[in-house]
Amino acid sequence: MQNVPEEGMVRRRVGSEDGEEWKKNGGTAGEEWKKNGGTAGEEVEKESLMMELTRLVQKMVKESSWWERRGIDCSILAAAFLCLPPAFLLLASSQLLWFSAGVLLMGVAHAVLTIKGTHLASHGALSESQAWAKFWAVFFIEICGSFSARAGVQGHIKMHHAHTNVIGLGDSSVWKVPFLPRTVYLFIAPLSVPIITPLVALAHIKGQSVALILRTMLMVTLGLYSQYWLLIHVSGFQSPLSALLCMLVCRAMFSVPYIHVNIFQHIGLDMFSPTSRPKRIYQMTHGVLNLPRNPVLDWIFGHSLINCHVEHHLFPFLSDNMCLKVKPVVSKYLTEKKLPYQQDSYLSRLNFFFHKYQELMVFAPPITELVGVQ
Fold this sequence. Notes:
- Helices cover 61% and strands 0% of the residues.
- It is mainly alpha-helical.
- The radius of gyration is 22 Å and the shape is globular.
């Protein structure tokens, strides 16, 4: 357990949506603290950490061009789409080398769209327009990702981000499957993610409006059937089974690191009780971890999921490229204020989870109480 100095304590309402802290930055000093019975002078001292860091980040965002804020990430997603036509054509080849290149190209393109694309779309980071943000969420999450956009946003934004590492709320326990042995969970079970995902989506839309159920089912079916149709009619697959198998291979290509990343960066770190959680800046710095730069995962998953996860949880409305741009400022600030800035390698976390699987993924996690910041 790490002690944190009492000065710089953050007062912030828990459970706010993306950008709320940002929007409140220009508000009246002392407003949030006064709601809890404090004085304006106390609020300036106690809330200054998150507000000061927010101002630094906000300044960088305002000075950045559209290309830096959204253009680079949109271009990566567009490049993934442009890889699909040659991938389908390569899959029509009878030469093993070219066919394998088609499988690899389609697998990479699919991962970019369904991991990086769905993540950015769920945060509304692809457009400043709310209407376009909603459109991209449905497109990437439902058509490309075979999941419910509503359930995805609800689970990721309003639970995981609002209640990061809070037991029973945003503690990543959704990824735990206690009855599976560690080798099966870490290296074999993730390959079933493409099959499980649409089934989980169906479970999530139960009880929703008829319009929402129909839209989700239509969009998911459109995404799956369009790939199947193209494999049959463009790539020339002779049987439905071979087309379905190719779909599974391409869609499961990065499922193993996808599951790893989702558990490595939260589980095993400090966990908090819903009744005694620390304030936001402490919650995120103690409960989130960055992985190092990776030339493959950085581009396919996005910086906010790999080497800028701390920055992403502090400022979840930023695009991947902007998270990377503000990373030096955030890391320097947290270090200067003697706050944790947690980093570890992929292999180190894998070794940690492999040898402590029972403790981390089967048993209930211990609750951390940070002295002086509750």
